[in-house]
Amino acid sequence: MDKDRKRKTIYDLAVLAEASPSAVSSVLNGTWEKRRISKKLATKVLRIAEEQGYHLNAQASLLRRDRSNIVGMIVPKYDNRYFGEIAEQFEAKARARGMFPVITCTQRDPDLEFEAAKELVAYQVECLISTGATDPDRIAAFCRAAGVQALNLDLPGQDAPSVISDNYTGARDLTRLILDRCQSDLGWHGALRFVGGRLSDHNTAARLRGFLDAHAALGLTVPEAFIKATGYSASAAWSSLQDFSPSGPAGIFVNSTISLEGVVRWHSELGSEARHVRYGCFDWDPFGKFLPGNVGMVEQDVSAMLEELFTRIGTPQAAGAPTLIPCKLRAF
Amino acid sequence: MDKDRKRKTIYDLAVLAEASPSAVSSVLNGTWEKRRISKKLATKVLRIAEEQGYHLNAQASLLRRDRSNIVGMIVPKYDNRYFGEIAEQFEAKARARGMFPVITCTQRDPDLEFEAAKELVAYQVECLISTGATDPDRIAAFCRAAGVQALNLDLPGQDAPSVISDNYTGARDLTRLILDRCQSDLGWHGALRFVGGRLSDHNTAARLRGFLDAHAALGLTVPEAFIKATGYSASAAWSSLQDFSPSGPAGIFVNSTISLEGVVRWHSELGSEARHVRYGCFDWDPFGKFLPGNVGMVEQDVSAMLEELFTRIGTPQAAGAPTLIPCKLRAF
DNA sequence: CTGAAAGCGCTTACAG
DNA sequence: CTGAAAGCGCTTACAG
């Protein structure tokens, strides 16, 4: 059935409609009024196309047209609300602007990331957005050579304009919130632990600066051993706390909801000591509010980041300093 | 710069490499050994392609080839772990099989769903998978007319083969777990509330049957008013419980993690009565385990569902009865 | 070992 | 109001 039923083309429709392929094409792509084709013929062609199960061959159409209107995005994971929201809103905003969005998920794998970038460029994307890419500059260099616009979201690069959250301020405010709540809930004042992320990542580094500055502003010093940037895995976060059995009050700054899973597990295993622990998390999850001990979360402003990004699509610019978008602090 | 730097084609490379476009093409697409082109020429062409920032025009290539290798998937949302995992694993499994995955997210909007299906068919997908589509049969009919294979995931359709979770058994087992825990934790035995979903949805209907049968097996009858299938929104779930102030023990079956957000909010606002309430949720979220009162969740077996689905890609079959994949019950 | 040539299914300037 | 024709950038059977 797939075999004998060859796909219909405009030539097939032209024969059936007793018109030329040109006329059929222009009816189908909506330029028929401009070409002053009769309404009667247009209706007829549309009816026959429907009857025959005709559908455009986008490859042929795009090959002939000068613009593709395709915008590509590379995303590392769909395992948290942040990237899920980015993907959803990116698609919606692209469609609202008459563009065709294509998103691909690369599992934080640098090679897969680059392969995906090459594929998207082959599909003639007009712009390629790298979200949280491990090596945005490699992708940007490739895009430059291919004449495709490159943009970075969530992680800054040197070779393409970047839109990122204001990680420093968000982290500083969250740290202050946790410190305040340790004071008010526990009557305790002291340095927090920092759990999760990688110090080599720009975002983690910026958040750590905010974390340390918030402490410094209150005259607190954070011991080296309190910084546990053990990567992006729940079990690593959990493991990093195994040598920590708080005998008194304590507080934790959790970097990412992935790490939060590990911290919450650790917290749930503490027993009665758990009531002396407060924590907060950089990144948002709707269940976070109901986790015992969690005093607040930082929600990145996905909509604002994407709006900013879309203003740049189509208007090539130099890389420059990253554009910072403020985060929203959610206190519980 | 975008203007003067026209994209390189194989003709440009052929001139630079002093070879024919045919030779360049076959070097670039890896068939050069079969064509017994000299290694020397191959190396030269590859080097020049790299230097010139050449990249394939997938549109031209696909237009000429007989197969696209593209598999399309339509997904309603990325706002929970379930669809996020489906998207991630679908991409990974497709790549592992040498296919090119394209996923698009349609916000549970029937029109957007259909538009997206048409776009994917225009892009020459060889197979289109509808995940949790509101109207899978409309999409399947369109695909049939266009000669494209259609498959349904997560929601069954009449017009295309379907792979879905065994919602009935999963719900029955979860109901039994909640009833057991009400007995053991609260010393109480009675009918549970059912919150979330829509009775017109196949999945909700199947889950409700499992829910009712688990009650019946224990000689319990569920009052009509206990069934609150108020849709897929946290606030609707929350609202539906506003007339419910448990003065004694109570239990709730929560249908979907979206509804869980509303139930947990209601639960957190109960005050001391909350300790008399137990609930469980159909669908998995890693934070679920740490929510007070939550006794267990049902995790759908995404990997098994997709493996089953991939066995069907490329081998057209009649619709038939849906294939049921067992769920995993996670007791806390 | 390699090239000339046809053709995939469209779009659009051009010529009536 | 409409059609003939060129061409988008590839791939591949065919012919050396």
Can you describe this structure in just a few lines?
Chain A has helices at 10-17, 21-28, 39-52, 58-64, 81-96, 110-122, 136-146, 167-186, 202-217, 234-240, 257-268, 302-312; strands spanning 70-75, 100-105, 127-131, 149-153, 162-165, 193-195, 227-228, 250-255, 277-282, 294-299, 323-325, 328-331.
Structure description:
Two copies of one chain form a homodimer. Chain A is of the alpha/beta class and 332 residues long. The first copy, chain A, folds into three domains: 10-63, 434 Repressor (Amino-terminal Domain) (Orthogonal Bundle); 70-160, Response regulator (Rossmann fold); 167-299, Rossmann fold. Chain A has helices spanning 10-17, 21-28, 39-52, 58-64, 81-96, 110-122, 136-146, 167-186, 202-217, 234-240, 257-268, 302-312; strands at residues 70-75, 100-105, 127-131, 149-153, 162-165, 193-195, 227-228, 250-255, 277-282, 294-299, 323-325, 328-331. In chain A, the strands form two sheets. The first copy, chain A, has a six-stranded parallel beta sheet, with helices on both faces. In chain A, helix 1 (10-17) packs across helix 2 and helix 5 (81-96) packs across helix 12 (302-312). The mean pLDDT of chain A is 93. At the A-B interface, helix 4, helix 5, strand 2, helix 6 and helix 7 of A face helix 4, helix 5, strand 2, helix 6 and helix 7 of B. The first copy, chain A, binds a DNA duplex (16 and 16 nucleotides) through residues 7, 9-11, 19-23, 25-26, 29, 31, 35-38, 41, 56-66.
